[in-house]
Design brief:
mainly alpha; Serine Threonine Protein Phosphatase 5, Tetratricopeptide repeat; two-stranded antiparallel ribbon; about 0% strand
């Protein structure tokens, strides 16, 4: 710690850091906060500086250093019995994705430290652990309009469950506008990103891609790197689904210091489609890159299971399948993640697991069913049909494959259309309809070949050869 003679320089650094924060120039804010920390006068509040520094690091998607910095701030606040400080730093660290049980424990510890000292901070902590009625009661009592915005977003999720996608998107946009007006940048970005995400998820790709582009633009305007990456990779998924691989690369190249593992997943899947199994496996993502967040872990295990299986490494694929199932069943992410590993699941999964995934699709709490995995750039109906086929329900399998092929054709997703046609051939094959099987395989092959999907073209060629043999 510096002596009091450094106080003017310290004050200048803090003031400049705060000006940078107001301008959303997080890199500049980090530089000046770091400089201030090297010349702390005795009267300085180190914990407050660390809280601001950690929040700025997270805005630039620097999760590990943000986490360490904010943990240090929480420890300092705790040492001096500052409940407000603990609550403030905890709310900052809860923005970083992580295991829900860990986040809940931290929020509850902050609530204990805070007590009734600050109703506003208490309302936000309650909201973060979904004790929403308590949070809204405090918001009504004290006039916390920012906390009440959560009600708007919750109404949006309710509209989604009713199948009213347009109403849901309108509410999420409203929440975005309100958060942006009060300079709550991350929730503002999150609301707009989720509006696009759900339009995509419900199969409306043109509209979803448009809103995702808006989300990217907003995140860039306030320099939120992680939110920018999330929305941009949603757009990359659309390009991938439509075989617009060059456009996907352009979108990826626009990202600065990308830390989202989905970029490498799309590169892996593209290499695989082009028949380069060695490059695809070299691009497999270590699940630890997700920082322990369950959905990140399950996404990467799902991708690995599918890639390893298609490369012929069945034992390794089975291990990844088991790892995925253990995480995905706990966090209800099976429907979103199954498209990338459907071949592995159908071939190596137990009947119990196959039924569990089928039931997860059937149990989704939406009146309008999800047609597309925004996280993977793939349709979902192929999976629904493949699960039905594996379990011997030919009628349901045929219905889902035809529905999926029609949706994919309408949305200009040729690989999804071709995969559904390829699997329709399995239905006709089970019915001993050789002509129908050959027709579906031929249609699938034409689509695969036209879009450079060598892996699938070779697979269909083998199936056609077996018919001739």
């Amino acid at each position: 710690m510096s002596d009091s003679s450094d106080a003017p320089a310290f004050d200048d650094e803090v003031r400049t850091a705060r000006e940078a924060e107001a301008a959303t120039l997080w890199s500049d804010a980090i530089a000046h906060h770091e400089a201030a920390l090297t010349q702390l006068p005795p009267s300085a509040d180190e914990a407050a500086l660390l809280t601001a520094l950690g929040a700025a690091y997270w805005n630039l998607s620097e999760a590990r250093i943000a986490w360490r910095t904010l943990r240090r701030a929480i420890a300092l606040y705790s040492e001096r019995g500052d409940g407000r400080g603990v609550a403030t730093a905890t709310l900052a660290i809860l923005r970083i994705w992580g295991p829900p049980e860990r986040q809940r424990a931290m929020a509850e510890a902050a609530l204990d430290a805070l007590g009734d000292a600050d109703p506003h901070l208490r309302a936000w902590l309650l909201a973060r652990i979904w004790r929403l009625e308590e949070a809204w009661r405090l918001a009504d009592e004290h006039g916390f309009d920012d906390v009440r915005i959560i009600q708007i977003s919750e109404d949006g999720w309710s509209a989604l469950k009713r199948g009213d996608v347009d109403r849901a998107v309108a509410l999420l946009r409203d929440a975005h506008t309100r958060y942006a007006a009060i300079r709550h940048y991350q929730p503002a970005a999150d609301m707009l990103r989720m509006a696009g995400f759900n339009l995509l998820q419900f199969g409306r790709l043109d509209e979803g891609d448009h809103v995702a582009a808006e989300a990217v633009a907003y995140a860039r305007s306030v320099h939120l790197r992680f939110q920018e990456q999330l929305a941009q990779l949603d757009r990359v998924g659309v390009a991938f689904a439509r075989c617009e691989f060059d456009r996907g690369e352009v979108l990826l190249d626009e990202l600065v210091d990308n830390t989202d593992f989905r970029a490498d997943l799309y590169r892996m899947w593209t290499a695989e489609l082009r028949g380069d199994a060695a490059s695809a496996l070299a691009l497999m993502v270590d699940p630890e890159r997700g920082g322990g967040a369950p959905t990140a872990m399950s996404q990467t295990h799902a991708a690995a299971a599918g890639a390893l299986f298609r490369a012929g490494r069945q034992e390794a694929a089975l291990r990844e399948l088991h790892a995925w199932a253990d995480i995905a069943r706990t966090y209800n992410s099976m429907p979103d993640e199954a498209p990338a590993l459907v071949d592995c699941l159908i071939s190596l999964g137990t009947d119990e697991l196959v039924r569990e995934v089928r039931d997860a699709y059937a149990g989704q709490d939406y009146r309008a069913y999800n047609a597309y995995s925004t996280l993977q750039g793939r349709g979902m109906d192929e999976v629904r049909g493949a699960l039905s086929l594996r379990l011997g329900d030919l009628r349901s399998a045929e219905r889902w494959f035809r529905t999926g092929a029609d949706w994919a054709a309408a949305q200009r997703c040729p690989l999804d259309e071709a995969r559904c046609l390829e699997r329709l051939a399995a239905v006709t094959g089970a019915r001993h309809d050789v002509a129908g099987t050959r027709r579906h395989l031929g249609s699938a092959r034409a689509l695969f070949a036209a879009h450079g999907a060598e892996f699938y073209t070779r697979r269909v060629d083998a199936a056609l050869a077996s018919l001739t043999g």
